[in-house]
Design brief:
It is a single chain. This protein is mainly β. It folds into 2 domains: 328 residues, Cupredoxins -  blue copper proteins (Immunoglobulin-like, Sandwich), CATH 2.60.40; 203 residues, Cupredoxins -  blue copper proteins (Immunoglobulin-like, Sandwich), CATH 2.60.40.420. Helix content is 8%, strand content 35%. It has 5 helices and 32 strands. The strands form 7 sheets. A 6-stranded mixed sheet has the order 10-9-12-17-14-15, with no helix packed on it. Strand 1 and strand 2 form a beta hairpin. The longest helix is centred in the first third of the chain and has 18 residues. The N terminus is likely disordered. The chain binds CU-O-CU linkage and copper (II) ion (CU). Its cofactor is Cu cation.
């Protein structure tokens, strides 16, 4: 009898071993001259490429990425966006929060389990490095024997991004200077790392042909070759630093079926609105006139970039037409940049797919209302939540909390709501001069249910409210509702969608609007929650949540070595 049990346990163990694999990657991260939009500048590459290599794994696998920082004079950290890091909070890759940055010349090994199939991202998470080109996709497939609830013939990933010609250092220094230097609109939009800047726009003497070369093959448009009659799953994601985007394929409707790793009740759209940090899967049928190619376009929405940033263009190449054959039509125009209604409509239409609904707890234990404002603090421009602008400490929070280094950040609790929120005028430039910079955090009771209300407001420009894509590390949250105007704590919660809300890790708060989220604080660690606009986060638009840090296992010494943790690093 006992032999039988031992035997079957052995069989089980072997089966589990056969299923969960280790996916090992070795990455060399460095600066290289690149011309993704024909204009040559320094970009951060992974193994020579931007976008970097895709991570392909199966649900349950362990991903191991050995990262060597060959940037020479710059620190580095890489975040695995959408991977919850259950049991490995020190692999989240958030410089200042979960680890000390990787020093030039050092190698750091990220190790984590991809516990759920879906489409995710990775990108640099130190300073404003993401904008220099360090990003890529993570595709986690279902375990053997399981099928997606929608059939398709081919599976492709496309990353959208925006691109600046100045360096992320110039941007960062501008943002933290008096007078303030805003990053402005990007020069180009990139579709899977390729765009096209009009070199003739460069004024002499910078019209040096080696610096901008329209015939450089590096900036030939991205081509997606498709076979007529087939169905494609396109995994579209955005790592844009600033821009909210609309994505469109000429003559082809798209059916949204996945968002941030969760199945969506299918909806058909002509434009996909996508905010930085989001991932979607759409299905398309290759069913148009097959003798020609079609445009794939991306446009900026939410900001007026019509005079500054041309649309990003790629080609949907119907096989066997020549991939370089230019579509015979003009690229379709994008939607009106300032029309919020269709964006809000798409956000609100995204619901969990029938049969895959994971209902949220009916009530929350704590409600945090985050008023999003732009403020001046000591003459510098910042973004704040409830008049607090986040500044990261020198010693990462995870280490500080685990090793009881209480003096390295402000231990005072932060308010769950701005005092006076009820009277706060979100429709006009508010004179909220009492904002401060702080490294204080929110401590959440382990396993409790937390609601976050993101409340948008006017920026410091008259009649201007921006779109902010909010991303939560370490969790997925339910999206309970959206609204325009001031959140009404008595009546709006009655309208929450508790029946089939989508779970996501990134969600937009629309101009002058609010967005309500719910999550369970059940992942021991310290997690950043922030606006995914690179410049906004740099200007303090974020908060930090701690939960169950006492349950976190022994920290690897490799994450130490900065701030007060220098002595913790064993050589
Ligand atoms: Cu994709 Cu903290 O970011
Ligand atoms: Cu923002």
């Amino acid at each position: 009898m006992s032999r039988l049990i031992t035997l079957s346990l052995c069989v089980l163990a072997t089966m589990a071993l056969a299923e969960a694999r280790v996916r090992h990657y070795k990455w060399d991260v460095k600066y290289e001259f690149k011309s993704p939009d024909c204009y040559e500048k320094l970009a951060i590459t992974v193994n020579g490429k931007t976008p970097g290599p895709a991570i392909l794994a199966q649900q349950g696998d362990t991903v191991v990425v050995e990262v060597t920082n060959n940037l020479g004079t710059e620190n580095l950290a890489i975040h695995w966006h959408g991977i919850r890091q259950i049991g490995s909070p020190w692999s989240d890759g958030t410089g200042g929060v979960t680890q000390c940055p990787i020093l030039p010349g050092d190698t750091f090994t990220y190790r984590f389990i991809v516990d759920r199939a879906g489409t995710y991202l990775y990108h640099a998470h130190y300073g404003m490095q993401r904008g220099a080109g360090l990003y890529g996709s993570i595709r986690v497939s279902l375990p053997d024997g399981m099928a997606e609830p929608f059939p398709y013939d081919y599976d492709k990933s496309i990353i959208l991004s925006d691109w600046y010609h100045n360096s992320t250092y110039e941007q960062a220094v501008g943002l933290s200077s008096i007078p303030f230097g805003w990053v402005g609109e990007p020069q180009s939009l990139l579709i899977h790392g390729k765009g096209k800047f009009d070199c003739s726009k460069l004024a002499p003497p910078s019209s040096d042909p080696s610096a901008c070369n329209a015939t450089n093959p590096e900036c030939s448009p991205y081509v997606l070759t498709v076979v007529p009659g087939k169905k494609y799953r396109l995994r579209i994601s955005s790592t844009a630093t600033l821009s909210a985007l609309s994505f469109q394929i000429e003559g082809h409707n798209m059916t949204i079926v996945e968002a941030d790793g969760h199945y969506v009740e299918p909806i058909v759209v002509q434009n996909l609105f996508i905010y930085s940090g989001e991932t979607y899967s759409v299905l398309i049928k290759i069913d148009q006139e097959p003798s020609r190619n079609y445009w794939i376009t991306t446009n900026i929405v939410g900001r007026n970039a019509t005079a500054t940033t041309p649309p990003g263009l790629a080609v949907l190449n119907y096989y066997p037409n020549h991939p370089k054959r230019v579509p015979p039509t003009n690229p379709p125009a994008g939607p009106m940049w300032n029309d919020v209604a269709p964006r809000l409509a798409q956000s609100s239409a995204i619901k969990a797919r029938q049969g895959y609904i994971h209902t949220p707890p009916p009530k929350s234990d704590r409600v945090i209302v985050f008023l999003n404002t732009q403020n001046k603090i000591d003459g510098y421009y910042h973004w704040s939540l409830n008049n607090v602008s986040l500044s990261l400490p020198n010693t990462p929070y995870l280490i500080a909390l685990k090793e009881n280094l209480h003096h390295v950040f402000d231990q005072r609790p932060l308010p769950d709501q701005l005092p006076g929120f009820a009277d706060y005028p979100i429709y006009r430039v508010a004179n909220n001069t009492n904002a401060t910079s702080s490294n204080a955090i929110y401590r959440l009771k382990f396993n409790t249910t937390v609601d976050i209300i993101l409340q948008n407001a006017n920026s410091m420009i008259v009649n201007n409210s921006e779109t902010h894509p909010w991303h939560l590390h370490g969790h997925d949250f339910w999206v309970l509702g959206y609204g325009i105007g001031k959140f009404d704590p008595d009546n709006d919660p009655k309208k929450y969608n508790l029946a089939n809300p989508i779970k996501k890790n990134t969600v937009a708060v629309h101009p002058y609007g609010w967005t309500a989220l719910r999550f369970i604080a059940d992942n021991p660690g310290v997690w950043l929650f922030h606006c995914h606009v690179e410049s906004h986060f740099y200007m303090g638009m974020g908060a930090v949540f701690e939960e169950g840090v006492d349950k976190v296992g022994k920290l690897p010494s490799e994450i130490m070595g900065c701030g007060e943790t220098k002595g913790f690093k064993t050589p």
